[in-house]
Task: structure prediction
Amino acid sequence: MTLDRSKLMTSTHAPDVRAEWIISAAWKAAPDGPLPVVAAVFPVVGPPQRAVLRIAGLGVFIASVNGQVVSDPLEPGYSDYSRRAEFCTYDVTALLRPGDNVITVELGPGCYRSKTIDDRWAKIATDYGDLGTCATLDWIDAGGTNLLRTDASWHGTTGPVTWSNWVGGEDYDATSAFDTDTAVVLTWPPAVTAQVPDGIRLCPKTIPPVRVVERLPALDVRETQPGVHVVDFGVNFAGWIELDLPPRTEVRLRPAELLDAEGNIDPVTQGWGPVYHTVRTADAGLTWHPRFAYNGLRYLELSGLPEPPSAESVRGLVLAADTEPTGTFAASDRRLSDLHRIIRRAITSNMYSMFTDCPQREKLGYLEQLHLVFPILRWNYDVKALLENSLRITREAQEPTGHLPLYVPEWDPFPDPWRGDVNFGLAIVFLPWQLYRSYADETVLADNYAAAGRYVEYLLASRDDGLVTYGLGDWNGRDPRFVPLVATATLARALGVLAAIAAVLGKEDEQRSWTAVQGRLTALLRGEFVHLDGTVGTGSVAELAVAINSGVLTEAEIPAAVQRLEDLIVADCYYLDVGEVAMAALVEVLAEHDRHETVYRLTHGDDRPGYGYMLKHGATSLTETWDGPTFGFSQNHFMNGAIDDWFFAHVAGLQQAADDIGFRKVVIRPRPCGGLTRASADYRTTTGILRSAWVLDGSTFTLDVAVPPETIATVVLPDGAVRQVAEGSHLFKSSIDEEDAADVVKR
Result:
């Protein structure tokens, strides 16, 4: 019987309070040995009417009923294990049968117990206690209402996974596979109580599960040296390697994102230690994928097979949170479409129970990218539940002083300057406002306002002569840059957002207070960094973009500053010498001031590091640094993906009105540029599909618009004409001056 995934449930009804955290005695006696399995045998009288499993695990669990896996991959997801564990709820009625039934739970360490062996890579070191599960199964059958809960009546053993680390790899020995026959399970020793963090709470999981969202065939299999083969999946992805293996074989699998000059894998981005899996089969063949871990990779090295592997014997299973896609983009210039594609791939690859970075070597919930490039997350997926959950974990990570860390949950704190950068912690201010404006749910503001205020007060109290002088500044994946200006300007901008939140929540006195502090901080920044000749800081593009975007310059100064910004970019041949903070600001500033030709050119230069350089050198997902595949940092990272917002909001022209909440008042203002002859984008708002599709044929501009229910759209055509329309499809035509049109096509 196959489980109907449409019947998977969300529930706030926790497992019965009498359920215990349990673990197998064999694993408890040897916690660095093979991983534990617990199981129970229970009778069902006649066909069941309804059966519901509620289950939590510390750290990763795989739940099965009568041999059928019930749980989704890598459950339950990230949480602060010192505080709470999430439980998942499944309707398993279809899997029960009259007579004896078996439920099994396999457990792996995940980030709850991150240790390594030998020299294998482990990003963090954690040990919160015993692995364990807490679960209840309640069902109704011919005998009435029944309840099974985890306690000493369960049985335990160890399974075929002999070692696992969230980033370092996994070892599997099929000769140690367990038998789930009821008579066999009853011979296992009794399960024992697991030692787990004191006071740990059970909370319902509120976010979409991780699932297989795409299956990738092997595009090429090559022998690089005797007995060693390299598989190419064609794209960089995050997920599972699935492999068909023959009997009585032991293989070693090494993932990689890059190849060296000889065609061997180059594991440089996988971590600062080896990453690999080993699999040993028994007397029968086996289809294998990791149980308690996943990888970021494009290439896979296989060694130990008795015969060369076929392309059909190995697959890539793309794993991601099963969120609803929300938007699409396409353009006549393939480079723009290709950039959108690799940015979306990087988002998907890092979209698990939290948005991560570096799905190959880190997999941590860094905070800064959530707000710096929030629009690209929203354009591509329904991220409301995922990001609200991230904010909850962020609030839990806040110290009594108000301090917030670089990533959450902060399982293994980093040393300074990594730990306290303001662009990471200020997600607690920016992200609730962005979610409120996108989804019109005021609850997110109320839930996070107190924590946001405490963090801002902490930052204000931690300044040195009025400036924030610590952290990463305009982080570019290598070195901290422009720290005092970038950090302090970001704080000033956050004060303005906090004032806006206070206004929505009716806290007028606090609104005035935050606004006053912002004014004083902005004045300090001007005195410290804005020079008489109009330069900012050391005169870099990054500092100028951040200063304009953060309100450091006056309205009167901004036109000249934008021109200076553009001149600097042109003079440096459109080279992107900025980090993630300045990149987000740069795109926003240039687009707001209609410098679209310049933004377009930023996508095309390929002789120096930048977007075009990544594509030229074969990037299939957005890379962490502008060097792309020519440099050994993450090849799958969305932090520099701000250009995708320009695609949707300016090339296609889908924008919120300045005073809009929830996409009820939108502006459709497409801007043909750079030789584009067509572009289109759609976005699924909370009420329906918003769409813009335009074609430029000679001097004739045709725009096809779809407006969802409960929405008013102001359409601004390239010739300056303005139309206001409501729900429905609308077609507009206008003329662009022939000289301008020819120039656009030529460029």
